[in-house]
Amino acid sequence: MTDHADAGIAQRVRALETALEGRGIVDGAELDEILDRLLTGATPRNGARLIARAWVDAAFRDRALADAHGALSELGLSMDHGPQPQLLRVVENTSAVHNVVVCTLCSCYPLSLLGPSPSWYKSAAYRARVVRWPREVLAEFGLRLGDDVEIRVWDASAETRYLVLPRRPEGTPRCTEDELAALVTRAGMIGTAAV
Amino acid sequence: MSRIHDVGGMEGFGPVDPADDGLPFHPDWEARVYALNVALLRQGAYRLDEFRDAIERLPPSVYLDSSYYERWFAAIEQLLGRKGVLDTGDG
To answer: Is A30 helix (H, G, I), strand (E, B) or coil?
Structure first.
């Protein structure tokens, strides 16, 4: 998009906001609060806490796979950043299975656990191709999986979101839970990278 | 009939560009569009399903030529217009 076009839409957005504020339909302080809450509260560190706990506590891992919401609440986390309640399912990578998440129709994503999604997650190329050529698309991210690894692609919807539980990195048996959480990446929890 | 948003499995797209600058919004207006949508949903100007439907109804040429938050803004404008939210008077 050109700078000129961007200035045009910026003005139109500003005009709409002003009109809505003028009628008392929205107010600027509320918009600021919405953005502040998003930018400070919704981050991949939340998802990373769940992953690290699952790595150090097998019983917690089992609970997260069976009932992700129960596991989140144990950590004081929830899926309530979006405008409506969302179900979460945690899917586990193993030596034989690799999981990757997409939303083919739009951009559904566990916002409260991963923060705002990366641009590529919302791109038509990712949405169109990862469901059909997952091995090739993962290779484009630099993740080359052996032919013996089954790839499962989860198509998120408005109602159900997915979080990948990556494999715990080798060489980390002495790491604390906090140290492990620091190793967990957003891409690892979407499934486009190993951790 | 499928609409243009239903791209899963569609051929013809090039490789994914995995670059990610980590920024949630690019120009500032994208953040305002995000916040406006949350506020409008919160106070019931329209429902989330209606918002999604408005995006999915965009003509294919507009859908494919627009950025993510341009689609959001187009959907918000259409919904507010359809529902008469900004009409004069209390009607």
So the answer is: helix
